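Exercise 7b. C-alpha coordinates:
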Protein backbone atom coordinates (compact mmCIF):
# COMPACT_ATOMS: atom_id res chain seq x y z
CA UNK A 1 0.00 0.00 0.00
CA UNK A 2 1.05 3.61 -0.57
CA UNK A 3 0.70 6.73 1.51
CA UNK A 4 -1.86 9.32 0.45
CA UNK A 5 0.97 11.68 -0.48
CA UNK A 6 2.72 9.09 -2.65
CA UNK A 7 -0.53 8.17 -4.39
CA UNK A 8 -1.11 11.85 -5.22
CA UNK A 9 2.40 12.10 -6.63
CA UNK A 10 1.70 9.12 -8.89
CA UNK A 11 -1.66 10.29 -10.17
CA UNK A 12 -1.67 14.09 -10.40
CA UNK A 13 -1.58 15.50 -13.94
CA UNK A 14 -1.89 19.26 -13.59
CA UNK A 15 0.78 21.95 -14.08
CA UNK A 16 3.18 22.38 -11.19
CA UNK A 17 2.68 18.87 -9.80
CA UNK A 18 5.48 16.27 -10.07
CA UNK A 19 3.27 13.99 -12.15
CA UNK A 20 2.02 16.81 -14.34
CA UNK A 21 5.50 18.15 -15.05
CA UNK A 22 6.74 14.66 -15.91
CA UNK A 23 3.81 14.02 -18.29
CA UNK A 24 4.50 17.32 -20.06
CA UNK A 25 7.71 15.81 -21.46
CA UNK A 26 5.70 13.56 -23.81
CA UNK A 27 3.44 14.04 -26.83
CA UNK A 28 -0.24 13.15 -26.35
CA UNK A 29 -3.04 12.70 -28.92
CA UNK A 30 -5.77 15.27 -28.42
CA UNK A 31 -8.34 14.42 -31.09
CA UNK A 32 -8.70 12.62 -34.45
CA UNK A 33 -7.84 15.27 -37.02
CA UNK A 34 -10.90 14.28 -39.08
CA UNK A 35 -13.10 15.64 -36.26
CA UNK A 36 -11.88 19.13 -37.18
CA UNK A 37 -13.39 18.74 -40.65
CA UNK A 38 -16.92 18.75 -39.23
CA UNK A 39 -16.27 21.07 -36.27
CA UNK A 40 -13.07 23.08 -36.77
CA UNK A 41 -13.14 24.67 -33.29
CA UNK A 42 -13.38 22.44 -30.22
CA UNK A 43 -12.77 22.86 -26.50
CA UNK A 44 -10.44 20.18 -25.13
CA UNK A 45 -8.92 19.35 -21.77
CA UNK A 46 -5.44 17.86 -21.52
CA UNK A 47 -3.33 17.32 -18.40
CA UNK A 48 -5.78 19.36 -16.36
CA UNK A 49 -5.71 22.42 -18.66
CA UNK A 50 -8.76 23.68 -20.55
CA UNK A 51 -7.72 24.60 -24.09
CA UNK A 52 -9.05 25.39 -27.56
CA UNK A 53 -8.16 23.23 -30.56
CA UNK A 54 -8.86 24.74 -34.00
CA UNK A 55 -8.08 24.49 -37.69
CA UNK A 56 -7.83 27.74 -39.64
CA UNK A 57 -8.97 28.23 -43.24
CA UNK A 58 -5.50 27.39 -44.53
CA UNK A 59 -5.60 24.03 -42.76
CA UNK A 60 -3.16 24.95 -39.99
CA UNK A 61 -3.99 23.35 -36.61
CA UNK A 62 -3.48 25.23 -33.35
CA UNK A 63 -3.90 24.49 -29.66
CA UNK A 64 -4.29 27.66 -27.62
CA UNK A 65 -5.71 28.84 -24.31
CA UNK A 66 -9.35 28.64 -23.34
CA UNK A 67 -10.18 32.35 -23.11
CA UNK A 68 -9.78 35.49 -25.19
CA UNK A 69 -7.28 37.98 -23.74
CA UNK A 70 -9.81 40.81 -24.25
CA UNK A 71 -12.88 39.97 -22.18
CA UNK A 72 -12.24 36.28 -21.39
CA UNK A 73 -15.02 34.74 -23.49
CA UNK A 74 -14.36 31.12 -24.41
CA UNK A 75 -12.50 30.80 -27.68
CA UNK A 76 -14.51 27.64 -28.36
CA UNK A 77 -17.01 30.06 -29.98
CA UNK A 78 -14.30 31.33 -32.34
CA UNK A 79 -14.54 31.68 -36.12
CA UNK A 80 -11.76 30.17 -38.27
CA UNK A 81 -9.99 32.72 -40.48
CA UNK A 82 -7.16 32.60 -42.99
CA UNK A 83 -4.80 33.95 -40.33
CA UNK A 84 -6.12 32.15 -37.25
CA UNK A 85 -9.11 32.03 -34.92
CA UNK A 86 -11.36 35.10 -34.56
CA UNK A 87 -13.05 35.63 -31.20
CA UNK A 88 -16.85 35.75 -31.54
CA UNK A 89 -17.23 38.62 -29.05
CA UNK A 90 -15.15 41.48 -30.49
CA UNK A 91 -13.12 39.98 -33.31
CA UNK A 92 -9.68 39.67 -31.77
CA UNK A 93 -7.86 37.03 -33.81
CA UNK A 94 -5.19 34.55 -32.68
CA UNK A 95 -2.77 32.57 -34.80
CA UNK A 96 -1.73 29.00 -34.04
CA UNK A 97 1.02 30.29 -31.74
CA UNK A 98 -1.48 32.25 -29.65
CA UNK A 99 -0.40 35.71 -30.83
CA UNK A 100 -3.03 38.38 -31.45
CA UNK A 101 -2.81 39.17 -35.18
CA UNK A 102 -5.91 41.34 -35.55
CA UNK A 103 -7.61 43.70 -33.10
CA UNK A 104 -10.61 45.59 -34.60
CA UNK A 105 -11.38 49.10 -33.35
CA UNK A 106 -7.91 49.49 -31.84
CA UNK A 107 -5.40 51.90 -33.44
CA UNK A 108 -2.64 49.31 -33.18
CA UNK A 109 -2.50 45.57 -32.59
CA UNK A 110 -1.13 45.13 -29.09
CA UNK A 111 1.64 42.52 -28.60
CA UNK A 112 -0.59 40.15 -26.67
CA UNK A 113 -0.42 36.38 -26.56
CA UNK A 114 -2.51 33.60 -25.01
CA UNK A 115 -1.16 30.23 -24.00
CA UNK A 116 -0.31 27.94 -26.92
CA UNK A 117 1.18 24.50 -27.36
CA UNK A 118 2.96 22.71 -30.20
CA UNK A 119 0.92 20.28 -32.29
CA UNK A 120 1.70 17.75 -35.01
CA UNK A 121 -0.61 15.54 -37.04
CA UNK A 122 0.39 11.89 -37.36
CA UNK A 123 -1.61 8.77 -38.12
CA UNK A 124 -4.88 10.68 -38.27
CA UNK A 125 -4.41 12.11 -34.76
CA UNK A 126 -3.53 15.60 -33.54
CA UNK A 127 -0.68 15.24 -31.04
CA UNK A 128 0.21 18.00 -28.56
CA UNK A 129 3.35 18.75 -26.58
CA UNK A 130 2.90 20.88 -23.47
CA UNK A 131 6.41 20.88 -22.02
CA UNK A 132 9.52 23.05 -22.22
CA UNK A 133 11.67 23.58 -25.28
CA UNK A 134 13.55 22.12 -26.95
CA UNK A 135 10.74 19.67 -27.50
CA UNK A 136 11.48 15.96 -28.06
CA UNK A 137 10.57 14.18 -31.27
CA UNK A 138 7.06 12.87 -31.75
CA UNK A 139 7.70 9.10 -31.70
CA UNK A 140 7.14 7.52 -35.10
CA UNK A 141 5.66 4.20 -34.06
CA UNK A 142 4.92 2.10 -37.14
CA UNK A 143 1.16 2.07 -36.45
CA UNK A 144 1.04 5.88 -36.76
CA UNK A 145 3.39 6.28 -39.72
CA UNK A 146 1.94 3.75 -42.18
CA UNK A 147 -0.26 5.42 -44.80
CA UNK A 148 -1.35 2.28 -46.66
CA UNK A 149 -3.84 0.90 -44.13
CA UNK A 150 -7.37 1.50 -42.91
CA UNK A 151 -7.65 3.23 -39.55
CA UNK A 152 -10.38 2.54 -37.03
CA UNK A 153 -10.62 4.50 -33.77
CA UNK A 154 -13.03 3.81 -30.92
CA UNK A 155 -12.97 6.53 -28.28
CA UNK A 156 -14.27 6.38 -24.71
CA UNK A 157 -14.26 9.16 -22.13
CA UNK A 158 -13.71 7.44 -18.80
CA UNK A 159 -14.22 8.68 -15.22
CA UNK A 160 -10.92 7.20 -14.02
CA UNK A 161 -7.31 8.31 -13.59
CA UNK A 162 -4.92 7.14 -16.31
CA UNK A 163 -2.61 5.30 -13.87
CA UNK A 164 -5.23 2.69 -13.00
CA UNK A 165 -5.73 2.11 -16.73
CA UNK A 166 -2.00 1.53 -17.15
CA UNK A 167 -1.75 -0.58 -13.99
CA UNK A 168 -4.12 -2.95 -15.78
CA UNK A 169 -1.67 -3.22 -18.68
CA UNK A 170 1.12 -4.22 -16.30
CA UNK A 171 -1.02 -6.96 -14.75
CA UNK A 172 -0.95 -10.19 -16.82
CA UNK A 173 -2.91 -12.30 -14.35
CA UNK A 174 -6.16 -10.32 -14.49
CA UNK A 175 -6.88 -11.82 -17.93
CA UNK A 176 -7.34 -15.26 -16.37
CA UNK A 177 -9.95 -13.95 -13.95
CA UNK A 178 -11.62 -10.79 -15.26
CA UNK A 179 -11.95 -11.82 -18.90
CA UNK A 180 -12.35 -15.59 -18.59
CA UNK A 181 -14.01 -16.38 -15.26
CA UNK A 182 -15.92 -13.13 -14.83
CA UNK A 183 -16.72 -12.80 -18.53
CA UNK A 184 -18.18 -16.29 -18.59
CA UNK A 185 -20.15 -15.56 -15.42
CA UNK A 186 -21.78 -12.60 -17.15
CA UNK A 187 -22.72 -14.78 -20.09
CA UNK A 188 -24.16 -17.36 -17.71
CA UNK A 189 -26.48 -14.89 -15.95
CA UNK A 190 -27.59 -13.71 -19.39
CA UNK A 191 -28.28 -17.33 -20.44
CA UNK A 192 -25.75 -17.02 -23.24
CA UNK A 193 -22.82 -19.30 -24.16
CA UNK A 194 -19.39 -18.46 -22.71
CA UNK A 195 -17.30 -16.01 -24.69
CA UNK A 196 -14.06 -17.90 -24.08
CA UNK A 197 -12.94 -21.14 -22.57
CA UNK A 198 -11.58 -20.73 -19.07
CA UNK A 199 -8.09 -19.32 -19.37
CA UNK A 200 -5.13 -21.51 -18.52
CA UNK A 201 -3.50 -20.91 -15.17
CA UNK A 202 -0.59 -18.42 -15.01
CA UNK A 203 2.65 -20.16 -14.04
CA UNK A 204 5.18 -17.36 -14.45
CA UNK A 205 5.20 -13.68 -15.39
CA UNK A 206 8.06 -11.48 -16.57
CA UNK A 207 8.89 -7.96 -17.74
CA UNK A 208 11.62 -6.56 -20.00
CA UNK A 209 12.34 -2.84 -19.70
CA UNK A 210 13.93 -1.95 -23.03
CA UNK A 211 14.91 1.13 -25.03
CA UNK A 212 12.56 3.84 -26.35
CA UNK A 213 10.14 3.48 -23.47
CA UNK A 214 9.20 -0.11 -24.26
CA UNK A 215 8.18 -2.60 -21.58
CA UNK A 216 7.40 -6.17 -22.60
CA UNK A 217 4.85 -7.89 -20.36
CA UNK A 218 5.33 -11.66 -20.61
CA UNK A 219 3.37 -14.63 -19.30
CA UNK A 220 3.79 -18.39 -19.23
CA UNK A 221 0.57 -20.36 -18.92
CA UNK A 222 0.05 -23.96 -17.92
CA UNK A 223 0.38 -26.04 -21.07
CA UNK A 224 2.84 -23.61 -22.71
CA UNK A 225 6.56 -24.02 -23.23
CA UNK A 226 9.07 -21.20 -22.93
CA UNK A 227 9.31 -20.82 -26.71
CA UNK A 228 5.74 -19.52 -26.73
CA UNK A 229 5.46 -15.93 -28.03
CA UNK A 230 3.56 -15.09 -24.84
CA UNK A 231 6.85 -15.69 -23.04
CA UNK A 232 9.52 -14.77 -25.58
CA UNK A 233 7.94 -11.46 -26.72
CA UNK A 234 4.75 -10.89 -24.77
CA UNK A 235 2.59 -7.80 -24.79
CA UNK A 236 4.40 -4.48 -25.42
CA UNK A 237 3.68 -1.38 -23.34
CA UNK A 238 4.86 2.06 -24.46
CA UNK A 239 5.72 4.11 -21.37
CA UNK A 240 3.97 5.99 -19.94
CA UNK A 241 0.49 5.71 -21.48
CA UNK A 242 0.00 3.14 -24.27
CA UNK A 243 -0.51 -0.60 -24.66
CA UNK A 244 0.24 -2.17 -28.04
CA UNK A 245 -1.25 -5.23 -29.67
CA UNK A 246 0.77 -8.39 -29.02
CA UNK A 247 0.82 -9.31 -32.72
CA UNK A 248 2.24 -6.91 -35.30
CA UNK A 249 2.33 -3.77 -33.16
CA UNK A 250 -0.20 -2.04 -35.40
CA UNK A 251 -2.85 -1.35 -32.77
CA UNK A 252 -2.76 0.65 -29.56
CA UNK A 253 -4.82 1.29 -26.50
CA UNK A 254 -4.00 4.93 -25.74
CA UNK A 255 -4.75 6.32 -22.27
CA UNK A 256 -4.62 10.13 -22.45
CA UNK A 257 -4.78 11.90 -19.05
CA UNK A 258 -7.54 14.47 -19.43
CA UNK A 259 -7.20 15.51 -15.79
CA UNK A 260 -6.67 13.77 -12.45
CA UNK A 261 -10.04 12.02 -12.64
CA UNK A 262 -10.67 11.37 -16.34
CA UNK A 263 -9.00 9.52 -19.20
CA UNK A 264 -9.55 9.92 -22.95
CA UNK A 265 -9.22 6.32 -24.14
CA UNK A 266 -8.49 5.62 -27.81
CA UNK A 267 -8.59 2.14 -29.32
CA UNK A 268 -6.41 2.72 -32.38
CA UNK A 269 -6.44 -0.12 -34.92
CA UNK A 270 -4.75 -0.46 -38.32
CA UNK A 271 -5.72 -3.11 -40.88
CA UNK A 272 -5.41 -3.94 -44.55
CA UNK A 273 -7.57 -1.55 -46.60
CA UNK A 274 -11.00 -2.81 -47.60
CA UNK A 275 -10.68 -0.85 -50.83
CA UNK A 276 -7.18 -1.25 -52.32
CA UNK A 277 -5.38 2.06 -52.66
CA UNK A 278 -8.05 3.96 -50.70
CA UNK A 279 -7.31 3.72 -46.97
CA UNK A 280 -10.32 4.73 -44.86
CA UNK A 281 -10.59 6.33 -41.42
CA UNK A 282 -13.51 5.67 -39.09
CA UNK A 283 -14.08 7.22 -35.66
CA UNK A 284 -16.78 6.08 -33.23
CA UNK A 285 -17.50 6.94 -29.61
CA UNK A 286 -18.33 4.32 -26.98
CA UNK A 287 -18.59 6.01 -23.60
CA UNK A 288 -19.23 3.61 -20.70
CA UNK A 289 -22.78 2.66 -19.82
CA UNK A 290 -24.05 2.08 -16.29
CA UNK A 291 -26.76 -0.15 -14.83
CA UNK A 292 -29.36 0.83 -12.22
CA UNK A 293 -26.83 0.20 -9.45
CA UNK A 294 -24.18 2.45 -10.99
CA UNK A 295 -22.03 -0.44 -12.17
CA UNK A 296 -20.18 0.17 -15.42
CA UNK A 297 -20.20 -2.07 -18.49
CA UNK A 298 -21.45 -5.28 -16.89
CA UNK A 299 -23.30 -6.31 -20.05
CA UNK A 300 -21.17 -4.73 -22.80
CA UNK A 301 -18.91 -7.01 -24.80
CA UNK A 302 -15.67 -8.49 -23.53
CA UNK A 303 -12.08 -7.55 -22.75
CA UNK A 304 -11.87 -3.75 -23.21
CA UNK A 305 -15.31 -2.97 -21.70
CA UNK A 306 -14.45 -5.28 -18.82
CA UNK A 307 -11.13 -3.50 -18.36
CA UNK A 308 -12.94 -0.16 -18.34
CA UNK A 309 -15.36 -1.57 -15.77
CA UNK A 310 -12.42 -2.46 -13.51
CA UNK A 311 -10.81 0.98 -13.87
CA UNK A 312 -14.07 2.83 -13.20
CA UNK A 313 -14.82 0.45 -10.34
CA UNK A 314 -11.75 1.77 -8.50
CA UNK A 315 -13.22 5.28 -8.35
CA UNK A 316 -11.99 8.46 -10.01
CA UNK A 317 -8.56 7.94 -8.42
CA UNK A 318 -7.80 4.52 -6.94
CA UNK A 319 -7.15 4.66 -3.20
CA UNK A 320 -3.80 2.87 -3.05
CA UNK A 321 -3.59 3.38 0.72
CA UNK A 322 -5.88 0.35 1.10
CA UNK A 323 -4.24 -1.89 -1.53
CA UNK A 324 -2.37 -5.07 -0.62
CA UNK A 325 -0.16 -5.96 -3.57
CA UNK A 326 1.25 -9.45 -4.03
CA UNK A 327 3.51 -11.48 -6.31
CA UNK A 328 1.14 -11.19 -9.29
CA UNK A 329 1.38 -7.38 -8.97
CA UNK A 330 5.11 -7.17 -9.69
CA UNK A 331 4.39 -5.41 -12.98
CA UNK A 332 2.23 -2.80 -11.25
CA UNK A 333 4.99 -2.20 -8.73
CA UNK A 334 7.51 -1.89 -11.59
CA UNK A 335 5.33 0.63 -13.42
CA UNK A 336 4.93 2.76 -10.29
CA UNK A 337 8.70 2.67 -9.78
CA UNK A 338 9.30 3.80 -13.36
CA UNK A 339 6.81 6.65 -12.92
CA UNK A 340 8.48 7.86 -9.73
CA UNK A 341 11.97 7.55 -11.23
CA UNK A 342 10.83 9.55 -14.28
CA UNK A 343 9.45 12.30 -12.05
CA UNK A 344 12.76 12.49 -10.19
CA UNK A 345 14.66 12.79 -13.47
CA UNK A 346 12.47 15.70 -14.55
CA UNK A 347 13.00 17.38 -11.19
CA UNK A 348 16.76 17.12 -11.82
CA UNK A 349 16.45 18.60 -15.32
CA UNK A 350 16.86 15.30 -17.16
CA UNK A 351 14.74 13.59 -19.81
CA UNK A 352 12.49 10.86 -18.40
CA UNK A 353 12.36 7.27 -19.68
CA UNK A 354 11.12 6.90 -23.26
CA UNK A 355 11.68 10.46 -24.52
CA UNK A 356 13.14 10.34 -28.06
CA UNK A 357 15.53 12.97 -29.41
CA UNK A 358 17.60 10.93 -31.89
CA UNK A 359 16.15 11.27 -35.38
CA UNK A 360 17.90 8.09 -36.51
CA UNK A 361 15.80 6.14 -34.00
CA UNK A 362 12.61 7.64 -35.43
CA UNK A 363 13.13 6.92 -39.13
CA UNK A 364 11.49 5.53 -41.06
CA UNK A 365 9.52 4.30 -38.06
CA UNK A 366 9.90 2.41 -34.77
CA UNK A 367 8.54 -1.13 -34.75
CA UNK A 368 7.89 -3.23 -31.68
CA UNK A 369 7.44 -6.72 -33.11
CA UNK A 370 10.54 -8.23 -31.52
CA UNK A 371 11.60 -7.58 -27.96
CA UNK A 372 15.21 -6.35 -27.90
CA UNK A 373 17.47 -7.54 -25.13
CA UNK A 374 16.06 -5.69 -22.13
CA UNK A 375 18.11 -3.27 -20.09
CA UNK A 376 16.32 -4.89 -17.16
CA UNK A 377 14.62 -8.29 -16.98
CA UNK A 378 12.41 -9.49 -14.16
CA UNK A 379 10.71 -12.89 -13.89
CA UNK A 380 8.45 -14.21 -11.15
CA UNK A 381 7.10 -17.69 -10.51
CA UNK A 382 3.65 -17.40 -8.96
CA UNK A 383 3.08 -19.03 -5.57
CA UNK A 384 1.47 -22.45 -5.82
CA UNK A 385 1.94 -22.67 -9.59
CA UNK A 386 2.79 -25.98 -11.24
CA UNK A 387 4.53 -26.42 -14.57
CA UNK A 388 2.14 -28.45 -16.75
CA UNK A 389 4.21 -28.75 -19.92
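Sequence design result:
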Amino acid sequence: MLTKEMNERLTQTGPGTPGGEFLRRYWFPVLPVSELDTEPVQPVTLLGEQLTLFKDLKGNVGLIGKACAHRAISLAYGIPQENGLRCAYHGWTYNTEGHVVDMPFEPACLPLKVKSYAVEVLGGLVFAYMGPEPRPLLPHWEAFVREDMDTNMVISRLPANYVQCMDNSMDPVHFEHLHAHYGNYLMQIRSEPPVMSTAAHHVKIGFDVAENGLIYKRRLLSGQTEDSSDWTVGHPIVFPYMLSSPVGGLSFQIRVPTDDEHTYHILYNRSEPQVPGKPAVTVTYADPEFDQFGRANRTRGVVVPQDEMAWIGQGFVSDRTIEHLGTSDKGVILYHRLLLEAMEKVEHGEDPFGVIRDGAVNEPFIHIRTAPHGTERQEFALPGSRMLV
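Instructor comment: DSSP finds ten helices and 19 strands in the chain. Residues 385-389 have pLDDT under 50 and may be disordered.
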